[in-house]
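thought: fold this chain, then report.
action: predict
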Amino acid sequence: MAITPYLLYEDVDGALKFLAKAFGFKKYGARMSGPDGKTNHAAMQLGDDLIMMGRPPSGYRNPKRLGQATQHLYVNVEDVDKHFERARKAGARILEAPADTAYGHRRYGAEDPEGHQW
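observation:
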């Protein structure tokens, strides 16, 4: 069984660019556009794992506009420190510097431009 996160973004095209630059995600599959030409649905891949994203109808407020996180994504990467530097240089808001945990993982925390926490 696999679980595929589906994140909502006001600007899916901006999210695609940011997630590729900051976190190394690659485009996956076809994008679907609305009548206005903006992307309504897309998917990205990191290693063997996928995320999907969509643009909901007007009235949606992303976590940044709400002023609080609505979820956290825990993504395992090969080199946490290298990944952290990439995200920092790309403009991710750093929530937590790389650190070793009591349960044996090394992790860091970052936020994308719409407030989703990674």
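thought: worth noting. The chain has a mean pLDDT of 94.
final: tokens above.
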